[in-house]
Amino acid sequence: xxxxxxxxxxxxxxxxxxxxxxxxxxxxxxxxxxxxxxxxxxxxxxxxxxxxxxxxxxxxxxxxxxxxxxxxxxxxxxxxxxxxxxxxxxxxxxxxxxxxxxxxxxxxxxxxxxxxxxxxxxxxxxxxxxxxxxxxxxxxxxxxxxxxxxxxxxxxxxxxxxxxxxxxxxxxxxxxxxxxxxxxxxxxxxxx
Length: 192
Prior knowledge:
This protein is 13% helix and 49% strand. By secondary structure, the chain is mostly beta strands. A hairpin with a 5-residue loop joins strand 8 (120-131) and strand 9 (137-139). The chain is globular.
């Protein structure tokens, strides 16, 4: 076989592999009341804690999420429960949400509730927050960003929405859902 044929065969093989990889990528779908769609909005709301050097600020978090063509981003993040919570500022939005297969334990980490299978890993990247007094700190830094890893469950029960738990480090800070708690989706969401 000539060099040209080998080169052409290698190019076609590489294209086939790349096509197969992108076709198998996981994506999000939302329940719109009558069927699943890959475009829409939802919120994840629930108790979280942000800590710096062991000093924690417990809050209720509300993450606004936009899904377009199966790709999800956190477009807004607000916190309530105290003046310290309401003063938390989310930077570098939107934050990307990348789903994947989850093969770890259930509950996913010590202090998280047991989730309803099927479970999916979700990495939220590009995260930067500022926690006001008494901490007065940027997490992970005033210019950097970090990734928070979480686990999303699935439920097919009417009126029961998904739960999402996460725990991660952002520099010297740590963020997580509170013990035995989770964020709840405002509408059912799944990963396919």
